[in-house]
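User: For documentation purposes, I need each entry recorded in a consistent format: the amino acid sequence on its own, followed directly by the corresponding structure tokens. There are two entries in this batch. Please keep commentary to a minimum and don't merge the entries.

Assistant: Recorded as requested. Entry 1:
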Amino acid sequence: MGKKYTIYIDENMPRQLAHGLHTLQQPQNAKDGIEIEVLAIKDVFGEGTQDEDWIPKVGAKKGIVITQDFRIQSQKHQRELYLESGVGILFLNPPSTGGFSYWDLVKKLISEWEDIKRIIKKNNTPFAFRGTSRTKFEKME
């Protein structure tokens, strides 16, 4: 098996997404030649864990986070922390009409999963990409 990647689903998204994506990815790992583990931040670090607490821990594992929390990018101290910690982040901007419905969020991640895998294989952490309900993930400067 090739390189191992750990993707964390932030607690602003259902932990079932992490469980489902992990289960769905397992038969593909051998075919992809990599190992991808998908975990829920709630399950690993506990519900309500502050970003400042989990970011360095995820970075220590060169982890990748999928989140709807754009404050991690817009607040200087959090942006510096994830960059210094070596975290890769995929920001998913929710629709302005009140956010993603559960199933729209599921469909978005499933439809983008192959792109997400390409992004994490091609980019060394730290990195930041941003996608919306209508656009694919694009690299942020």
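Entry 2:
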Amino acid sequence: MHKRAYQWTLFGLLLCFVVVILGAYTRLVHAGLGCPDWPGCYGFLSVPQSDSALQTAQMRFPDDPVEAFKAWAEMIHRYAAGLLGLVILGLALFSLRQRRQPGYPVALSLGLLGLVICQALFGMWTVTLKLWPQVVTAHLLGGFTTLALLLLLSLRLSGRLPALPASPRTARLRNLARITLLVVIVQIMLGGWTSTNYAAVACIDLPTCHGEWWPEMDFATGFNLLHQPVGPNYLGGMLEGPGRTAIHFTHRLGALVTTLMVLLLAWQLWRARHVLLAGLVMLMLALQVTLGATNVLLHLPLAVAVAHNGVAALLLLSVVGINYRLRAPARARLHMQTSRRRRTLAGSL
């Protein structure tokens, strides 16, 4: 096990989770444009506070008065994301030094660095394109992807590859886990699209929507990526009621499919005597469903909405971890074969 890299990866994983939570909080308090420029804030490295700094900020951005609370929410998120970028840069540089070590995940480390660079660009475009939903959703998905890849990197570096017995049941479980992961990812995408289009409270009753099982909806508008042009300020959203209702209702249907798939996966894990894995994913599912329903019935309370984003990340990590565990034997055999070949070659020389 590469202990130092493993410890830094765990720190990066925790920090990335914090960044995801801060991003959700920033969106939910409508602070995505708390600073109208990037990467600074009104041309400063921090939020302007003195009288002279406030006057300068007003001169630079006369149409965007300083709101200290929103500006600080945005800048704290940027500071945390910047620190995460430095950690991942360090992991990538360390991987280059270890590139001749058998089995070291160099490609994964460098891939994370490339993803973080893309995330920085999306962070800039989030501001310069004034919360254009397509960019904000992509930025959100990038954060979740970074989190998942950091988990995979930590598992690879841990040196612990628990082997599961090869059997038809394990193969079926592996396929089910992959499908469940795909469903969870699609549901997270729907959740991001719901959030960035401010459609979370488009329906405020359960299990119906506006008192109907199939309310008036405009799917063509809600899911037409070309319908929303670049240019307007999307703070608060631009879609009309039927478009937002279509997005919200689709997210509900996705939640139903996700629940069924996760329940099926948990049941199969339990039957295969992987009780802890089954219990973990069931706990995450139960929390997520409860938080989602509370969001609707209580009209999106801030703490519950932030927790809903956080548990979505934990559910994703749980399913990613299950997929990794089910794939571990093949990967372990590959690493053992690679190491054996290298030792044989070294001995012959």
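Summary note for entry 2:
The CA atoms of residues 35 and 246 lie 31 Å apart.
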